[in-house]
Amino acid sequence: MKKTFLTMAILTMVLGASACSSKSSTDATTTAAETTTEAPQTTEAETTTEETEDEEVEEMSMTGVITGINSDILTVQGDDDDTEKKYDISKAEITREFPFAEGDQVEIVYPDGTDKDPIPAISLEVLESVIAENTDPSVIGSVTEVNDSTLTIKSDEDDESYTVRIANAYVVAKNGITPDKKATITYIGDLDDDAMATKIVMEDSYDTAEADLNAFIGKVAEVEEGSIVLISADDEYFTFVAEDIDFSQYSTGDTLQVYYTGTLTAKALTAEDVEKK
């Protein structure tokens, strides 16, 4: 009897050990299957794209003078070799304050080794502007105070207030100089130090032909053949010249409004027309 029980106990132990061994093997196999994944594959096309993006475009630069303007195509004569080349600026980063004009000095950055015509410009900066050289500075803002001799304007650009002398200014305004209205004031001198206004255009007259003209109002100080000198209210002298205007019809002390081209800071300005005030 004891032998029978002993045999059964041994058999039970053997069967239990076999079952545990089988379960451990199955678990290990399952875990291995779950944790095994495929490594991501990089295609040849993706590798090529990444390499292309990492490459930097070599850049070249040149300085020269604009000799031709045709929409987004500028013809520029180089300072170094005097040759003219065309540049496409349609996608370029442009730095300028005034519209392009023939005669502008510019610096152009473009891709090195490009064989395109016109050459695609990466960036362009106007170093010297013909328009700027022949245009007096201006300030845009709201008129806050005005009297017979001065005007105060609050600038839109920096929110500061500036007072300018207006006794000799050419005024373009449908309803006169009105406080709390927008205006563009062209001036000479230091805006922070009592500059002289040369032209005042109120917002209601921005779209008029008169707003595009330049004029100076002053008293005749001297008349010569082909030229006339006007004096401002603050005893500043301005010389105007013209071959087709008869200045001899005016006398010292007359108040004239002379239309001109250029900037009042020039030694002599070209007179286009004269009106007696």
Give the SSE map.
Blueprint: H1 2-35, H2 44-54, E1 59-70, E2 73-78, E3 84-88, E4 93-95, E5 105-111, E6 119-120, E7 123-128, H3 130-133, E8 138-146, E9 150-155, E10 161-165, E11 170-172, E12 182-188, E13 196-202, E14 215-224, E15 227-231, E16 237-241, E17 255-261, E18 269-276
Parallel strand pairs: 3-6, 4-7, 11-13, 16-18
Antiparallel strand pairs: 1-2, 1-5, 2-3, 5-7, 8-9, 8-12, 9-10, 12-13, 14-15, 14-17, 15-16, 17-18
Q: How would you explain this protein's 3D organization?
A:
18% of the residues lie in helices and 41% in strands. The termini are far apart. It has 277 residues and is of the alpha+beta class. A hairpin with a 2-residue loop joins strand 1 and strand 2 (73-78). The chain is globular, with a radius of gyration of 41 Å. It has a 7-stranded mixed beta sheet with strand order 4-7-5-1-2-3-6. It has a 6-stranded mixed beta sheet with strand order 10-9-8-12-13-11, with no helix packed on it. It has a 5-stranded mixed β-barrel with strand order 14-15-16-18-17. It contains 3 helices and 18 strands. The longest helix is centred in the N-terminal third of the chain and has 34 residues, at 2-35.
